[in-house]
Specification:
mainly alpha, about 80% helix
Length: about 60
């Protein structure tokens, strides 16, 4: 399992992983402070991550 996680993480640049982690922290904080319900907070994080990753890949010409 650890090897698969490392392989998956290697597909991203450090800045992308940092952004995902920061976004997840913000979603967790929003949930814990009752600013958002869990489902919309996680959906927003996933949407931001997926759209952000696709936009970045398109700008850099990456196809992974």
């Amino acid at each position: 399992m650890a090897e698969r996680l490392v392989q998956a993480a290697n597909r991203y640049h450090e800045a992308e992983l940092d952004g995902m982690l920061r976004g997840l922290f913000e979603a967790d904080l929003a949930i814990k402070t009752n600013a958002m319900d869990p489902e919309p907070a996680v959906a927003a994080w996933l949407g931001e991550h997926l759209l952000g990753t696709r936009r970045e890949a398109a700008r850099s010409g990456r196809t992974d």
